[in-house]
Each structure stands twice: as structure tokens, then as C-alpha cells.
Amino acid sequence: MTDATHRPARNKIVVWDLPTRVFHWLLVSCFVLAWLTSEDNRFLHVHVFAGYLMLGLLVFRLAWGFAGPRYARFGDFVHGWDNVRDYLRSLLQGRPQPFVGHNPAGGWAIIGMLLMGFVVTLSGIVVLGMEEGHGPLRGWMSPASAGVFRELHETGAGLFLALVGLHLLGVVVGALAHRENLVLAMITGRKWVEDIDTGVRHHSLLGAALLGLASMAAADYFAGYWLHGEEQAYQPFEGRPLPQSDTWNTECGDCHLAYHPTLLPARSWNKLLEQQHDHFGEDLDLDPDTLAELRAFANRYAAESGIDEPAYKINRSIPRDQTPLRITDTPYWRHKHEDIDAAVWRNPKVAGKSDCAACHLDAEQGTFEDSDMRLP
Amino acid sequence: MTDILRMLALCLLLGPMLAQAAALDDLLQQYAAEAQRPFSAEAGKRMWTQTHPSPKGGPDRSCSLCHGEDLSRVGKHARTGKKIDPLAPSVNPERLTDAKHMRKWLKRNCKWVLGRECTAQEKGDFLSYIRSQ
Fold first, then answer.
1. Per-residue pLDDT reduced to its tens digit, A120-130
2. Chain B residues touching residue A363 (CB < 8 angstroms)
3. Within a domain: residue A374?
4. At what angle do helices B120-131 and B41-49 cross, to 10 degrees?
5. What's the distance, Cα to Cα, between the start and end of chain A in Å?
6. A97: domain range?
7. Which of A256, A280, A285 is closest, CB to CB, to B82?
């Protein structure tokens, strides 16, 4: 330890190069954005963008941890247990050992967060592919096997959040113990050090390129909001087209939205068609040929087919001994609509609970993408 | 040679149009065989807005409840709120071109509005009224 009489010259040097700082604050943005959009399905596309950007940033940071300047390198801040123990002990004694870059405890928080970042983003891509039918893994496995990856995604996010908490605690404690503004240092890159160290280069060009690349990715991803026509609101996600039947679309669609067969199980469609002479009070009066065609189409692509997320989840939610005749009677539908304010249902633009298209932009196609919803 | 081609093109264009007009004429002829009087667009218009009590206690029913009084405008299904394309052939040329479609909806909608199937006379009057719009 130094004393007042032998204090070496205090230097202000660059510790955090620009790419590391850009990485840090972009990662913070992605993390916050992903948490804010994790509950409300309407923002799934924003959530997914935050995830993709985060994964890109993590890959960069992994490489920068080997190729970057001194304080960005894993070799600088990954310490053995002995060093961590010694550091924590010195901290408890109120005389923390000085480190120019990350201290040994903070270094492990960084490693933990990077690891959790990979777990969360990669499992997210798997869930996106299985449940939503989007991303590089779309159609790779059925929604039925998504459960374990969803668990991993959510648990990983929880652990990531806990590590962020530890990291922030470390910043507060470190700032108090070492008497330095660590947040400012992550913005300017500079720290006062009592060390004969010349610091690192800013690597400004690479930092600017990183920021530019992220901005371009965002502009490309969200360009649809500016580019789409006026006639219909922008649909960020377009579902894989479902099988269609002209007969189905005409016979059902003349009076109401031609609800796609994926939205009810086959036993429900069969019962509805059997009761065609009293279809919610109306006589459909279908001729035998038309009836047979409708029956075949409904049975082929009913909810049991599990060809998309609504099909799989609606079917899963209905007890085997029940045959709901309305989509709005299925447990999954009810669960997904229970938080909708009563005022929305009273809105004159909403003809009733059967009027899917009032909020779902892709109701006609039957894909019911999470991001394609707008409350009127 | 060009004359033959021109004639051929004319036939190709007119053929489907004539076939469509024929669908309505055929249907009217079939109904006429069972009707007592010549069909009247005026009678069809009168029946169009006539109301009939709903058996289920909803609003009184009429053709105009869903299709509106102005057939050139878009209608609205009384129960589901789904929009219904205009019935007037003057703005919607697809109307009155498909016999199966006409029979189906005359049957279903008469049953819904009147609580019974329409007579041949009534159907002919309705079709004549719609055709005139």
C-alpha cells in the first residue's frame, strides 16, 4: 500500500477501449429491451431483435476477449480462486487491492453474464423456431419439445438478471471502496490510476463500426414500419402460409371470419358440421358434397395437426372429454384474452369476441402471430 | 383473316358475360313457371324493408337489416358484423351470375327473415328488384 509521502504520479489513462464501451452499453440496451418486451406478446419482434443483437454482441466480445487490448482480454481479469479470495478479504478489511481493469470478483461476474447471455440467446432461438415457427430453426422440431428450452431461456434470464444485480452491487461497492466513478469510466473509457501505465488505444474505428453495424441492423429490422403501405398496419412477422380451401373460405367466410381449422380440434368441427341445421341459430343448409369437402378439410388441418402454435396450444388446453363449439370457449383462448380490458370489447370497432380481425392483423390467414396484434 | 380473329375475340369476351346473364334468366324462368303474376321489382322493393319479428327476441328482421336499404352500399351482418359486398350488379358485377349461389342465399335468408322459404313469386320479385339496382 502507498502512503501520502510516496504516492506515485496519478495518471489518467484509457482503460476501456471504444469497442468495449460500445459493447457494454449496447448490451445494457438489449438486456433492458428484452426484459421489457418479455411478457407482452405484441412486442415479440422487438424482443427477438434484442436477442439477435445481443448474440452478435456476445460473439464480438468473445473474440475481443482474446484479440482486444489489455484490459478487454479475459487473460487480464479471469483470476484463480486464491486471487478472488484475497481480493474479497482485502475489500472486507476496507483496504481493497487496486486493479486497473476488472477486479478478480468482478471478472467472474463478467464471465457469468457472458455465459448466461449465450444460454439465453441460443435457447431463445430454439424456442422461436419451435413455438413461433420463425428464425433459423423454424420447422426444426415441433412445438411440443419446446418446453425444456423455454425453461432454459427463462431460468437463464433470471440468472442473468441476478448476475447483473451482483455486477451493479460490485460497481457501487467498488466505487465507494476505490473512490472512483466507475460508471463515468465506462462512458469516457478513462480512469485515474496510481500506476505507471500508458493505457490502451481507443480503437475508435472499430468501436464506430460496431455502433454503425448495430444501427444498420436495427434500421433494417424495423424498416417495415416506415415502408409499409397505408391500407393495413404493418405486420412484423408473417406466419408460414396455412393450407387454404376455397370452399371453406366461401361457406364460412360469407357470414363471419373463416376461422381456420387449426383453431379447434376435429371433434369440435365434426360436431359443428353435424349440427349444420342449427348453426348458432341458423340453418346452413349445406348440400352433401359441400359438407363432405368441409369435413375433410377440417379433419385434415384441425388443431390436432399441431401445424402451428395456435393449433398446438389450443389442442393442448382442451380436456379430452370436452368438445367446445366456440374457439372462445377453449381454455387457451380464454387464458390469452383474460387480461384484455372490458373497454376494448365494448369498442364499436370490435364486433364481439368472435371478431378476431378487430385486433389480429393476420386473422384471415389464421396464423395469429404474436407481433401482429393491435388493440383498436 | 383479321375479321375472323376479331369475331373470335368478341365471342371469347361476350361468351362468359352472356352465360352469366343467362344464369339469372334461367332461374327467373324456372320461378316464373310457378308464379301467379309477372315479376315486379316494385314488389321486391316493398318486401325488402318489411320487418318481421325475430323468434329469438333480437331486433326485427328484414333484408335491409344486413344488406341495407341502398343496395349499392356495403352491408353488415347483423350478428357477426362482417361486411357484406354490395348486392347491386351496377356496382358489383359478380352479383346474380351464379345460380347455385342465388338459390342458396334466397333459401337461407328467406328462412332467417321470414321464418319460412319464399314462394317462387317472392324470389322472382326479389331478383327483379336486385337486378334493377
1. 999 999 999 99
2. none
3. no
4. 100
5. 66
6. 8-222
7. A256
Residues B122 and B106: their CA atoms lie apart, in Å, by 10
Whats the size of chain B, residue-wise? 133
**Partners of residue A14 on adjacent β-strands:** A190
If asked whether residues A169 and A131 sit together in one domain, one would say yes
Highest CATH level, class, for B21-131: mainly alpha
- Nearest chain A residue (CA) to B111: A283
pLDDT tens digit string along A227-281?
876 667 788 888 889 999 999 999 999 899 999 999 999 999 999 999 999 998 8
Domains of chain B, residue spans: 21-131
User: Which residues on chain B are in Cβ contact (under 8 Å) with A256?
Assistant: 77, 80, 82
Pair (A217, A251) in one structural domain: no
Q: Taking CA atoms, what residue in B is nearest to A258?
A: B82
Question: Which residue of chain B has the CA closest to A280?
Answer: B79
C-alpha cell at A171: 460497481
Q: Which of A178, A241, A236, A240 is nearest to A361 (CA)?
A: A236
Rounded distance, CA A76 to CA A338, Å?
52
Q: What is the ipTM of this complex?
A: 0.76
User: How distant is the Cα of B31 from the closest Cα of chain A, in angstroms?
Assistant: 20
**Taking the alpha carbons of A173, A174, A175, A178 in that order, is the dihedral positive or negative?**
positive
Three-state SS letters, B86-111: CCCCCCCCCCCCCHHHHHHHHHHHHH
- Chain B positions contacting chain A at CB under 8 Å are 56, 77, 79-82, 104, 107-108, 111-112
Could you tell me which of A71, A97, A72 has the C-alpha nearest to residue A84? A97
**Helices and strands (H and E) in chain A: how many:** 15, 2
Contacts with A255 from chain B: Cβ below 8 Å:
77, 79-80, 82
